[in-house]
Amino acid sequence: MTQTEPSIFTRIIEREIPADMVYEDERVIAFHDIAPQAPVHVVVVPKTAQYRNVVELAAADPELLAHVVAVAQRVADELSDGEFRLIFNNGESAGQTIFHAHAHVLAGGLTEGTLGSK
Ligand code: AMP
Hints:
Blueprint: H1 8-13, E1 21-24, E2 28-32, E3 40-46, H2 54-60, H3 62-79, E4 85-87, E5 103-107
Antiparallel strand pairs: 1-2, 2-3, 3-5, 4-5
Helix pairs in contact: 2-3
């Protein structure tokens, strides 16, 4: 198997690089996105690096995916009004840049018709 560099998210989990943390437990970590796309933009990341995207995560560990969703709700409750948009970029042409499964939690006054650019 080809050895790959740890992802930025693994380096954040390992505390090798800093992040603005909002939640952590034994399975996931959540922190503010460095380039926010909404008033609240938090990334929820499973600690395991074995899933490259949400499809792999959902197939292998649906319970962990459900936990990611529950943590997204918790983040939205704590940082906004409890309502949120949950985004999983899946693949380069969909905007994925870090191939360590993660969810984007966007909240705080989103408007209709802003899901993506045409
Ligand atoms: P994606 O494009 O779906 O792979 O999401 C990766 C996200 O990670 C982007 O929204 C980046 O802004 C964010 N990001 C990259 N590096 C960092 C970092 N050091 N701390 C917080 N967020 C980061």
